[in-house]
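Response to reviewer comment R2.3. The reviewers asked that we include at least one raw input/output pair. We reproduce the pair for Amino acid ABC transporter substrate-binding protein here without editing.
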Amino acid sequence: MFKITLLSTALTCFSLISNVATADTLDQVRERGKLECGVSQGAAGFSLANSSGQMEGLDADICRAVAAAVLKDPNAVDFVQLSSNERFVALQAGRVDMLARTTTQTLSRDMDVGVDFAAINFFDGQGFLVPKKLGITDPKQLDGAVICLRQGSSSVQNLADYFGSLGIKYTPLLFEQSDEVVKAYGTGRCDAYSIDRAVLAGDRLKLHDPNEHVILDAVISKEPLALVVRQNDSRWADVVRWSFWALVNAEELGVTAATVSELAKTSTNPEVLRLLGKDSNYGEKLGLDAEFGLRAISAVGNYGEIFDRSLGKNSSIKLSRGPNELWNHGGLMYAAPWH
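Raw output as returned:
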């Protein structure tokens, strides 16, 4: 199950919480016995509760992988749903230990918000969702349109830059809550909805008749979505980073949730043995044990398995891997070597 955390608007005053906590997050998580993981308010394919109340998606499974690596239990995680405006404040205030929440890594966020980006877990780009009946095939046809946007997301600035460079006039209609944006678009309050294309693909399925809406081919930005931790907590950043990279390295080495236990016993590949903690103890350098990677993979599978069931061929969204394919298969997904 998951819990929804509502943040007081008073927390928006960053000056009250800008000092980085001196306590080590890894120690805090262990003492608490649970990982507090900040996720979206309901992004299909990334973090969305199913009919049984279980959180599903790429980001949700990365939270579980970190919990498995640190606490030896993938279910020892609370999913804290946060709006775009709330996410950094919640992290700074210590309400969550990390964000796995469709968050774009940018220079200003890296320098000004008091956070560190541990690893990019999804490569995306901003696009447009439009009603098919409008006959629009290019965003340049949206001159004078009303565009639905999520307040606090990088898509607001991206759209201003893109349309500004083309001299296109538009009216932004901003919403803080994810479902509010989808509802506004679905009821015709705006002519188009613009955000990351993978998010659009998931939100499109929430509409009354998804087939009556199309995602334009145009991509107007780079959106490297990353896992986020508090600034100046290098050990915790390393734990989150290498727990995720275990999943990417596992795909590259052909290690799956179904085979990981057997490979730990029988593999003769030194890279596999190092990854699974059978020929080294790299976990000790992180403050973990040798088998933290093995547990993360066993809990959620490798990166490709997570992608396929959350966003890809085994999901309702059916996204292609695209830039999220492994580097040795023509994509950008890449993890540092395990040695």
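The chain has 13 helices and twelve strands. Residues 1-22 have pLDDT under 50 and may be disordered. Further pairs are available on request from the corresponding author.
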